[in-house]
Amino acid sequence: MERLREWEADNLDVKVMHDLSPQQIKNGFTNGIDGFFLGTYWWVGKKWAYNFVRDIALKGGLKKAFGIPQSAIYIHGSDRILEDEKKTFIRPYLVALREAVCFNPDVIQVMDLPLDDRDDDNRVCEKLAINRDMVEDYHGWLVKNGFRSSNCYKDGLPKFSKFMLLGVCHGDYCDAYAEEAKFMMKKCEVLGVPVAGLLTHIKGLSKKQRYDYMFQVLTKVLDVIGNSRVLQLMGFGLSDIMEIPRLVKLAQKYDATVWIESSTLVRNSIHARKVLSFNIKNPNVVEYVNVAKVKGAEGFSPLDIFRQNDKVLKGLLTQTQLLSR
Amino acid sequence: MGEEITEPREILKRTRIEVMPYLREIAEHSRAIIPRMEISKRWMDYYEAVSKVRPLTASERRKLEEHRKAYDVLASRLEVYRAAGRYARTKKSEDLVALRQAQSRYYEAKATTLPPEKAREVREKMVPLKEAYDELAATESEIGEKCKRYKAVKYKSTFETALMEPLRREAELKRVGARIRDLYVRKHEITQNLKAFEMSDLLRSYGEVKGVGG
Lengths: 325, 214
Description:
The complex is a heterodimer of chains A (325) and B (214).
Chain A: H1 2-10, E1 14-19, H2 22-26, E2 35-38, H3 49-58, H4 62-66, E3 73-76, H5 93-103, E4 107-109, H6 121-144, E5 164-168, H7 174-184, E6 190-194, H8 196-200, H9 207-225, E7 230-234, H10 244-254, E8 258-261, H11 263-270, E9 274-278, E10 286-290, H12 302-323
Parallel strand pairs in A: 1-2, 1-8, 2-3, 3-4, 4-5, 5-6, 6-7, 7-8
Antiparallel strand pairs in A: 9-10
Chain B: H1 8-28, H2 34-53, H3 58-90, H4 93-111, H5 116-126, H6 130-155, H7 159-162, H8 166-193, H9 199-206
């Protein structure tokens, strides 16, 4: 029974990628997790940036430098435009790629231009074309430097690659996402769908309608990629835990592997010091509760809370998956 | 249970006998991996057994290390073949991820066969230029200082700015604002003028491990 549970845990269709900082990685937050995401905004523009990047490169990558288990999937983020326009920072993407290679990650996120509400059709097409060009250039650079082979499978993926590429599929309607996914899947092993904007920026829709639209988009994308590529929900921070069963069911329908982010879990563990708990009065509801209110969790450090929450979340995912079979 | 052999010469003799069938297999199938792994394993066992009898010489230690590295490379290559076969059969995303991770481990194992100095040199060449990082950090910190000054003047949050005359305040705001604008322009220029890097050097260095990418 124990082995069956372990097998189920290893073969989960939905995996959780935590958005961690270098400080948290240093403090051992990476033990026992499925994977983590590290953005470049933690060091770019800081005085210690060069020394940091150089040290990591000389030690053979981030995983070796911090003693991170090989099983944890490391996604290296790209430079991105922050919401405040004054903080815009984007390097030439090949420089960012070169830096990413120094960190020796499992997955490299391809730099992308996000769409804006004010963009007209021409601007949207232009941005999508730039995104496609960047994917081609990333692939070309990796091939040129011997990190990928020029020998390809029939579906376009190279036969050898040291790194996986994460291509972000933007769009202004469902079919546009699917079309982008169709292009990206030729070069990228992991396809990202930026769902954060779908859940927060749409005005005049209820929460249920927003999630419905998001699942509509995901269904279209999964119709195209099926089980052949990993799907990452970018910005699906698990702010609504009760939406997990829908996601698990969708993943199971296509037998797809889905990676989700968990920024809410990290935020609640480290800053708010809350643990995921069942409500005794209403056992169907799972919510974050302050450690002071949970018996036995009073003395938990942020790391303990994080590990506890991660385990509970994985348990929830496994249970949901088993029950929905 | 036979008597335990403790004589180095005897251990060597036994190891040579054990290795022979695998050598014959390699003579037949030159690309075979498992016999090569067995040979490396036997020699690793030999050096470990000898080290219990007497300290290893420098050349023996070097050979042991070489066998260890060769074993790692072969094991990771075998893992790549198995993962590739599984992916070819299923074409599933989880098998694709497993294949890529196996290939990454193979690349790493292959890279460890480089001498440490050479490996360090190759890695160091990969790091983007220091000037770009430094110049950017200096501009960022100056932007931070100027923004603080701008806020202090605008919201009269310090003693000195609270006593400022309106006309002087206006002039100061304009001056600091213009400087902040210039700094943002400069920051943009720095980021856009970053040279990707000299490819020729890198290509030459990576030529040694490029066989991996085949």
